[in-house]
Amino acid sequence: MRHLAFTLAFLSGLIPAVTPVHAAKRPAVITVRNPIILLGELVPGLDPEIANLEFGPAPAPGMSRTIRATEIRAKLVNARANDTSPMLPSFVRVRREAQTINSIALEELVRTSLQTLLPPSFKLRSVSVRGGLVTAAGTLSITPPQPIAWRAGRQLVSLRL
Prior knowledge:
By secondary structure, this protein is of the alpha+beta class.
């Protein structure tokens, strides 16, 4: 009878100890829109001055990156944060929002952008793009990397998103 009571007490003591370990190993997942990760996105509830400090570069659009809690704590120490030991999961997965634009939509976007760049005396006959693309989420603007010297006939133009 004593062994049974000891076994139950021992096992009931282990159950709470095992549960947080498994929960802490699951990475938290956050999604960012910007090319830079801010400390406030990784650690909610920080002082606004510290929350707006840069942690580092965000992953490429549509990709993800895993950040260890030790890296976050090191940044907090460097930032001279008052509370350098917030409750953090052992890993935080950061995903960057992305949007996929098919070739038809991209062609229309390029066509309308070129129409606004063309002098009134020029007429745009055709536009062709090589395919769709995956880019950061948000509104897109298309601009030429340098002023375009327009001429009659077929012309290859490079544009920047």
